Structures are given as C-alpha cells and as structure tokens.
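Below is a filled-in request sheet from our internal design queue. Each sheet records the structural input a requester submitted and the sequence that came back. We keep these sheets so that new team members can see what a complete request looks like end to end.

REQUESTER: design group, bay 2
PRIORITY: normal
MODE: inverse folding
CHAIN LENGTH: 508
BACKBONE (tokenized):
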C-alpha cells in the first residue's frame, strides 16, 4: 500500500479507492475495532459483503486489528447464516444492507453484539435489537482513534473459511496468515515471467468472500499494485461488459459457467481484451470448447488451476510456459506435494486414478472446533485428503477426474460425470449440462443428463444421446436426458449436481 500509494487499487460503480486510501481507512477501522469494540487478537469478525469497495477495507481492517475474518455469502438464508455465526462465535458483523432482514431473524440467538451496515443510511436502526451503525460512521470514528499495530505471526489465524457443506454441515477451515502468504508467493513464483507488478488490471466478478477470488484476485494482485475492477452483480451482463470495455484487463479470472455466459452475450464483442495476457479458470473443470471460444474472442486460452477451501486454495496450476489448453490442471505449485491414494490406501501407480492428497504450506491447520473431522481429513503423514479423484500423467500434470462422492457405478463400471458432461458439451446447441446418477433396479445406477440448450437451439434429446454414443462407450451414455432452462449453481457459478440428484421416473 505504501509502494503503490498513488495508484488506484479498486474501482466499483464509478467510485475509486487508491492504495493510500485503502491504507488509511483500513487503519481507521482497525483502531475503531480495538478501541471502541474492544476487539482482541483472535476474536472473530464476520464479513458479509458482495464485491464492493467496503470489502477490501473491511478485510484489511480486520487483519490489522488482529482479529479473524469469517467470510459469509450475503445471499445466505437465515439457517445458513445462523450456523456460521454460531459456529464461529463472531462478535461483530460487517454486513451488506440488503441482508438486514435475514440477519434480524437470527441475530438474537448469536453472540453478535454489533452490526456495521454497508450501503445503509447514516441513521441506522438496530437489527434484531442489536446496536447498529453505518460503515462510514465506523471509519469516521476510527480516524480519531489511535492505531497501534498488532503483533502477528504466520501461525495466527487469518480466515475461518467455511466449506460448502455438501456432506453434512458446513465446516470452518482454519487458514493462517502463513497459509495465505505461502499461496500468494507460490502463485507469483510460478507466473513470475508473466506478471508485471504495478502494471496489472484485473476484473473481479467472482465473489471476494469465496477463497478463490479472495486469495488470487484480491490479495495476490493487491500485493502487486494491480488495479482491481469489482463487479458486484455479474448477472447484470450489460454493466459487466461495460466494465470489461473500460477496464481493458490484463488478467481475467472466472469459472467455466462465467466464461460461457459471457461468450453467449450479444454485446461481448464490445469488451476490450486488447491488453489481456492471462485468463484463469478454476472452481470447476473448464471445458475445452469454452476455452477454444474464449481464445477465439480474446487471443488467450484459459489456464486452469485446482484447489480447495482447505488449501488456501491453489494446489496446482497450468505453468507459465504452456502454449495452449490441455484439460489438465497443471503442475503442483512450488513446495506442494501431491500424491494419489487408491482405495487400499496405497499410492496409486503412474497413470492410475486415486484420491488426490496434498501436503504443503498452504494446507489449513484443521477445521474449527472439529477434531473429529481433522482425524478423517488427514493421512498419518500429514497429507490432506481432498475427496477428488485424479490422475497424474507421465509429465507430472494433474488431471481431475471427478469428486469421489459424485462417481456413478453403472453395472459395476465406474463412471465419472465430468467425462460425460465434457462429451455432451461438444454438441453444437448445448450451452451447459450436468450428469448425475439415480438408483436403477437393473444396473444399480443409471446416468441422467440435465442439459440447457443454447439460445435459438432446437437440439433434441435423441440427438444428444446419439452424439454421446459417438464419443462414449455404451455404459457411459446417459440413459435419460432432461432438457431444462437452467441448472442450479453456487455463488461462484459451480453447477450443484447434488441438487439434481433426485429420484426420477425411469422410462420403460
């Protein structure tokens, strides 16, 4: 923040925050939290914001106060919000004004004693009987408080980053300052020939409360003095394309569905990609057809990364020297050990599938107050078991096959939905799809493919099945096709197969 003081750090909706302003305001917030809220090192503060300028100020302020930030999706339901607040024991929450009603439903049953609303009027009413003030008021008061740096070490906790809770309740991954610093420096080491500190522009449409954007878009590029254009509502595609037009990004980060959505938008040709040097995809597998279309539009192919909340998050990345899309997630980051374990617990032979297990400085310390989960999550020699199935090829590149729990067994054969989806998506007229298994009395499980037609397409179920038969062996061909208008997705655009895995009637 000192090195790039005069440069713009963040833009959003016509407003700009310089690095000097970020430095000053985050110090004010930290001083206010410690002096007026009596926040001590290790206390938990929840941040429930979309991609707005208050997010980086709040994060830097929480960091400087010595507290632990609990990142919360501002679109969460009352049940989801209550779980994270209670599980983390957060005492203060910095919340988006639109989440006020949801917060009011649950706050009385939590430890939260102060609410700071962003985007609210200066004269804030209490939320559920809890004292409330505006974010701008907290910053003004903080300017009159004395800022004293807090002594922090690498082992101190920085974030409680909650997992998606796809199996049971959501768990908080304990991510330390060292975890995040390590992952930032690992990425920068791998891409040192491409990165240009002080001359990067990044557009951030994936949510900052998600670990992918939090580490890469925010912290990593902030450390290089990048100009960051925040998109608070990526569903507003006209405004989104307008940002791409003005920003002329040097780097763009997204998930497969975000790239595909942009490519299908009528105005995408107006966006300025003339300076784009680096396109990065993560969160879910990037399809080759999407990368090819993106390269045709922008001149850059999509480089894939692989990671998890528990690994801060990046484990592997397409190396800087790569010249085209490969479908792999690249090589492990420097200082990262990856091994594949078979069902028997032994390391899988070269070219064989196995559960991806990771050891490195970016791997979390464990789950918050869940020693039982820790014992299941780590091997005896300290490798984190990801639950993902992968293959390492002869060149050492990691290929993600699928989630272990998503594997479908058809007549005794293992079928990985990613493979079926990749094949189906190559048919012109299919925008996106998702494959799941359903119980079947004859084959144990049957494959069901949910597909979304591209605008103007009239492709039929029979045509899609016929196409799959040309690319897949018989047992991998979907038994049932369901054409739908949309697929359920997470906040970062990852397709939620678990919401599709419902009992369906099987055609006779």
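RETURNED SEQUENCE:
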């Amino acid at each position: 923040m000192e090195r790039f003081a005069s440069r713009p750090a963040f833009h959003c909706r016509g407003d700009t925050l310089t690095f000097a302003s970020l430095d000053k305001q985050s110090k004010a917030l930290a001083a206010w939290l410690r002096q007026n809220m009596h926040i001590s090192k290790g206390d938990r503060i929840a941040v429930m914001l979309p991609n707005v300028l208050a997010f980086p100020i709040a994060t830097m302020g929480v960091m400087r106060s010595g507290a632990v930030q609990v990142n919360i999706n501002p679109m969460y339901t009352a049940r989801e919000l209550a779980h994270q607040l209670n599980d983390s024991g957060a005492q203060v929450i910095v919340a988006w004004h639109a989440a006020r009603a949801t917060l009011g439903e649950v706050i009385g049953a939590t430890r939260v004693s102060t609410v700071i609303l962003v985007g609210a009027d200066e004269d804030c009413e209490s939320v559920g009987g809890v004292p409330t003030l505006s974010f701008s008021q907290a910053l003004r008061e903080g300017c009159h408080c004395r800022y004293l740096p807090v002594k922090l070490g690498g082992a101190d906790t920085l974030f409680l980053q909650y997992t998606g809770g796809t199996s049971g309740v959501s768990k908080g991954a304990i991510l330390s300052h060292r975890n995040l610093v390590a992952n930032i420096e690992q990425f920068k080491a791998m891409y040192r020939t491409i990165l240009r500190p002080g001359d990067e522009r990044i557009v951030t449409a994936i949510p900052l409360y998600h670990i992918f954007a939090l580490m890469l878009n925010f912290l990593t590029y902030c450390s290089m003095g990048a100009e960051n254009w925040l998109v608070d509502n990526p569903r507003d595609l006209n405004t989104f394309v307008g940002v791409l037009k003005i920003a002329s990004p040097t780097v763009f980060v997204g998930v497969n569905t975000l790239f595909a959505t942009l490519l299908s938008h009528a105005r995408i040709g107006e966006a300025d990609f003339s300076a784009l040097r680096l396109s990065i995809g993560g969160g879910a597998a990037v399809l080759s057809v999407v990368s090819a279309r993106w390269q045709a539009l922008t001149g850059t192919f999509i480089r894939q990364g692989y990671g998890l909340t528990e690994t801060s998050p990046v484990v592997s990345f397409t190396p800087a020297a790569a010249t085209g899309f490969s479908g792999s997630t690249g090589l492990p980051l420097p200082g990262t050990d990856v091994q594949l374990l078979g069902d028997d617990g032994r390391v899988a032979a070269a070219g064989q599938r196995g559960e991806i297990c990771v050891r490195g400085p970016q791997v979390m310390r464990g789950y918050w107050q869940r020693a039982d989960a820790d014992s299941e999550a780590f091997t005896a020699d300290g490798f984190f078991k990801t639950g993902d199935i992968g293959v390492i090829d002869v060149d050492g590149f990691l290929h993600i096959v699928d989630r272990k729990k998503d594997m479908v067994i058809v007549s005794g054969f293992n079928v990985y939905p990613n493979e079926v989806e990749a094949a189906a998506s190559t048919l012109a007229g299919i925008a996106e799809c998702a494959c799941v298994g359903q119980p079947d009395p004859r084959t144990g499980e049957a494959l069901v493919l949910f597909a979304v037609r591209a605008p103007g397409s009239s492709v039929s179920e029979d045509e899609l099945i016929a196409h799959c038969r040309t690319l897949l062996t018989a047992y991998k061909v979907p038994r049932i096709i369901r054409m739908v208008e949309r697929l359920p997705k997470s906040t970062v655009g990852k397709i939620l197969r678990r919401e599709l895995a419902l009992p369906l009637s099987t055609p006779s």
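SHEET NOTES:
- The chain has three domains: 14-152, 175-403, 407-499.
- DSSP finds 13 helices and 26 strands in the chain.
FILED BY: M.R.
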